């Protein structure tokens, strides 16, 4: 049997930390449940000290999942570790993940500490975390720009203090596969007690090498790979889970290691994360992009028809892409709808299921055929419901190619309905301006994307927007068979996320930010 590499997913922490990718508590729980179905070994559910919202979300995740280790991140500080423990204490298998920077530039300019002070703090804080939790991971932040000799000493000390996992983060995505391989081998050969702990790697993608560096580390002997779904994360993101896992599976001949991941859950996990974060994957993204299994060129199509292996190194079915689609329509009952959801991997609480079924019926009245993509879009929206500080009551548009577009929009806010009129450069612009007037704020529209959920003239328009308020970006999504309505809904969804975020931030204790 091939050796196993543990998969540590940090979509809910490092992924969620990236601009415009924030998720609320319900969304995080939904992703956590799917990560458990995917069979990740460890999920980092958040950074408990960052906000009371993060703390509550980690606790909610711990209550929901069973067959997986749940970790909270903590700086190597007592107050961080206290709150991290508060977050994961009730998990079936809790872990405290503590970190401190070890590179000269971070120690000098960020921490203003000498290497000896950093070493001492590591020992103290690993011991401190260990009093709470038997499973403690220690990360040497910016490890790839650290002095390897110092890394050997700090890892040896962390393991002696009780760390069960020591992690090598390429925090700024600076290293290369050859360097990474040498670093990991150096650690394995020079840390005398390394066999007493799991050795992990955590790569960022600033040079587009996150996955390559992770695979190089695996070849050199790490036993835990840290990654995120769709590669979301700080700046250029983290190493993508689906790419690491499918590379190991497809090239077992080379890597001779396996993971516990149920690869048939990859596609739906990717879709869920893309929808809930509003961070869509590019069409040519490896494994989960819309074109990843599409064969357009005639010569390729001919080859694939003759023998799939001519141009396919893995099957669509291996990541859970099914060609066997069943369609529903207006005569489909609740049972068929629920059955389809289970088949698609969704479990919704009763209230959300009721609401989703109601919307399915409305949609089925407008569209002859409701496809899996429609259901997926609808359900993912329901799973991700956020409080509607503002909701759309109605709108009227006057538009054409020889007149200025005018929109009249009525919104409901705190039980009161108000209406405003605005003109704009086209109907969508006019609607957004009317909403700005009603909300009393102006937002910078960072991006606007419209695509149809399925083919056909009666297809739903799926609008994704990103709006900026000060330095924070909020994503929103709206669905309707009317594209102006989906635009208004998407814009309001982003605004409501902003209100939700501001509310959660106002509950945050001072100085909690990192
Ligand atoms: O990139 C990084 O260094 C991290 C650590 C906190 C593990 O995310
Ligand atoms: Zn990171």
What's the number of helices? 18
Can you name the CATH architecture of the largest domain?
Alpha-Beta Barrel
**Integer average pLDDT:** 91
The share of residues in helices is: 40-55%
Strand pairing plus helix content: what structural class? alpha/beta
**How many domains in all?**
4
Coarse morphology: globular
Stated plainly, the CATH topology of the largest domain is called TIM Barrel
Spell out which ligands are present. Answer: 3-methyl-2-oxobutanoic acid, zinc ion
Low-confidence stretches: 509-514
CATH classification, class level of the largest domain: Alpha Beta
Question: N-to-C terminal Cα separation, in Å?
Answer: 43 Å
| Count of extended strands | 16
Name the CATH superfamily classification of the largest domain.
Aldolase class I
Strand content: 15-25%
Radius of gyration: 24 Å
Strand order across the largest sheet: 2-3-4-5-6-7-8-9
Largest sheet: 8 strands, parallel, barrel
Structure, described:
By secondary structure, the protein is of the alpha/beta class. It folds into four domains: 8-277, TIM Barrel, CATH 3.20.20.70; 293-319, no CATH class; 324-383; 390-505, Double Stranded RNA Binding Domain, CATH 3.30.160. The protein is 43% helix and 20% strand. The protein is built from 18 helices and 16 strands. The protein has helices spanning 11-15, 25-38, 52-64, 78-88, 104-111, 115-132, 148-161, 177-190, 210-220, 241-250, 252-255, 266-277, 298-306, 334-344, 350-366, 372-383, 427-439, 483-506, and strands spanning 3-4, 6-9, 42-46, 69-75, 93-101, 136-141, 165-170, 198-203, 224-227, 257-258, 390-398, 405-413, 416-424, 444-452, 461-469, 472-480. It has an eight-stranded parallel beta barrel with strand order 2-3-4-5-6-7-8-9, surrounded by seven helices. It has a three-stranded antiparallel sheet with strand order 11-12-13. Strand 7, helix 8 and strand 8 form a beta-alpha-beta unit. Helix 2 (25-38) packs parallel to helix 3 (52-64), helix 6 (115-132) runs parallel beside helix 7 (148-161) and helix 8 packs parallel to helix 9 (210-220). The longest helix is centred in the C-terminal third of the chain and has 24 residues, at 483-506. 46% of the residues are buried. The model is unreliable at 509-514 (pLDDT under 50).
